[in-house]
Design brief:
Layout: H1 5-23, H2 32-56, E1 70-71, E2 74-75, H3 76-117
Antiparallel strand pairs: 1-2
Amino acid sequence: MAHLSYLGVLFFVVVGTGWLEIVLRTRVYRRWRRLVLALLPVLAVFVAWDLYAITRGHWTFDPLRTTGVLLGRLPLDELLFFVVVPVAAILTMEAVRSVTALLVDRHRVRDQHGAAHA
């Protein structure tokens, strides 16, 4: 089971943030083109960085903690990390934006009702 450690962590990141899409209606997945455009630079930079570090011997992956599936010299688990973690960050940012907008709207409504009664 240790070979699924990396994927297990990614699973919990998805579970920990995935509900934000449904409960707070962040619409991150619905706007998939925007999401892909946000992910492409992250993937490009960090895949290049990892490949450089692996090639130079500065960075390795424990084969006992990864699936063993390699895409060139990069473990599939690491590539998934570069997708899952940024998506989780975007979901979190959009959730904060959504909640903040709700609070501002409630404050506006309260102010409008208070002004009408004054």
